[in-house]
From TrEMBL:
Its cofactor is Mg(2+). The keyword Mitochondrion does not apply. InterPro entries: Aldolase/citrate-lyase_domain, Citrate_lyase_beta/mcl1/mcl2, Pyrv/PenolPyrv_kinase-like_dom, Pyrv_kinase-like_dom_sf. Belongs to the HpcH/HpaI aldolase family. This is Citrate lyase. It is an enzyme of class 4 (lyase).
Length: 296
């Protein structure tokens, strides 16, 4: 599942959906949680149901449900697990046990509505509670490995900041303070260890395109492969950043070809520089991100 850009859209806003529909995002996240007032939850569910039955689209249809413990989760799932849904974003997870519970609910609902088993994927907001910070090992421990539905992990600072009672989560220069640097790092480590996509959190100032581009550059440098967005104007920058350039792809092909021509060596030389097996892994990942098949 290619997920460079994932744009949040309030599920109860036809106007915002109309603009988001054509913005070029890889996925739209129809939000039933934070952006929908309590009195509008039922209306938002019906809106999502209607959209799911609409014409074909060129983006992935995801829904952020309300978290476990709110009394709203099952109502959300019953409303949205139906043909047309590609995935569910689970907020405020405390650990793998929450992911497994949602997965079991989806197992039953897929059968009930005639969706092929396993079609609906799961994405998790993995750092929104203090308890979640102690549960990352569960995503990679064989005895409690996540459902095969799990395809991506992302992180967030605002809910965690509120739960901690922190006065701020940013330094004066805009950098994350230390607790949130830890949360971000834990997310990218756990996602890669679990073999799922690591997605960077949102960039709040949607008018600051230069700042967004630099933040995306840093995210890609650190191992994230996509990013959440809160405004359609952010999508093009995010897509460009998380798409390898022609030069990147050409170099990756040369690295793969060099190792293929010398399968028994641990390092190869290209243009006077040495490359070892980790560079081969990175090259294959870059090519796979654009759908290129690599013959082993």
């Amino acid at each position: 599942m290619k997920l460079r850009s994932l744009l949040f859209v309030p599920a109860d806003s036809d106007r915002k959906f109309a603009r988001a529909d054509t913005c070029g995002a890889d996925a739209l996240i129809l939000d039933l949680e934070d952006s929908v007032a309590p009195g509008r939850k039922a209306f938002a569910r019906e809106a999502v149901k209607n959209l799911l039955g609409a014409a074909t689209r060129n983006w992935r249809f995801l829904v952020r449900i309300n978290p476990l413990g709110t009394g709203l989760t099952l109502e959300d799932l019953v409303a949205v697990v139906r043909p047309g849904l590609d995935g569910i974003l689970i907020p405020k997870v405390n650990g793998i046990q929450d992911v497994e519970l949602i997965s079991h609910y989806v197992d039953v609902l897929e059968v009930a509505v005639g969706i092929p088993a396993g079609h609906v994927k799961l994405l998790v907001l993995a750092t929104e509670t203090p308890a979640a910070m102690f549960g990352f090992a569960g995503y990679v421990t064989p005895s409690s490995s996540p459902s095969s539905r799990l395809v991506a992990m992302t992180w967030g600072a605002e809910d965690l900041s509120a739960a901690l009672g922190a006065l701020t989560n940013k330094e004066p220069n805009g950098d994350w303070t230390f607790p949130y640097q830890v949360a971000r790092a834990q997310c990218v480590f756990a996602a890669n260890a679990a073999g799922v996509l690591a997605l960077e959190t949102l960039y709040g100032d949607y008018k600051d395109q230069a700042g967004l581009a630099e933040s995306c550059r840093i995210a890609r440098r650190d191992g994230f492969v996509g990013r959440l967005a809160i405004h359609p104007d952010q999508v093009a920058i995010i897509n460009a950043c998380f798409t390898p350039s022609d030069a990147d792809l050409a170099h990756a092909r040369r690295v793969v070809a060099a190792f293929a021509s010398q399968p028994d060596v641990g390092t190869v030389g290209i243009d006077g520089k040495m490359y070892d097996r980790p560079h081969l892994v990175a090259a294959k990942r870059a090519l796979a991100s654009v759908g290129e098949t690599i013959d082993e």
